Amino acid sequence: MLLLVLALLVLLVAVGGKRGLSIFMSLILNSLVLMISVILMAGGFSPVWVAAVAGLLILAATIFLTNSDINVAGPAFVSAIIVMLGLLVLVLVVVIHSHAAGFGAEDSEDLEGMELLIGVRFQQIMIAASLLSTLGAIAEAAIAVAAGINELDVERDHAGIVRMGREIIGTAINTLFFGFFGGFAGLFIWFSQLKYPLWEVFNNKIFVAELLTVLFSVVAVVLTVPVTTWVVGRRARAGRAQKG
Predict the structure, then answer these.
(1) Structure confidence at residue 57 (pLDDT)
(2) Residues 6+ apart with CB under 8 A from 162
């Protein structure tokens, strides 16, 4: 892992120069935020509130350290916060009613002899994990849309902006689902070899929890595109009104 991290640093600096170094620093900062969040959750703090605060810090580090143009980073950060807060409500409702938190029957062998009464509700942990897992997709979509619109005329290039948003959504959704199916290929083969019926697969805790995480990210991307478009358009119109 250390060799891979060093290779990543060398490639980022070689390709992106100072910007690549800033991206690497944002990765380190985000890793520290996540580690501190886990420590706070284990220490008794509410996982949901910890995830919400950590989400703001991660979005700020990801957006502002990877993009030096304030005309892009500012609207992207505002729209990312709006989407994150809206998504938090959706995650709370879905996780509470899905009953997918905790470990599945397939984890029983690995957990044998371990203590599960850790003083933290698994439901809250799943809510926190689901929210944090969407931040990358939110930040990426927000920056892409803000940067694209910044090069266009908000009023005159409406068709181009809509087309750009559709392309970003399509690419992001494909990336998320291919990542999901690639990471779960082994589990799918295991389900197939053990002759799991389809209804049992779709009611399996491990499968449902991971699928919900991917769906949350998809919803986040779909919401980020119009929200960022609205924020950038509103900012552009306000700027023209001040000049007029």
Answers:
(1) 92
(2) none
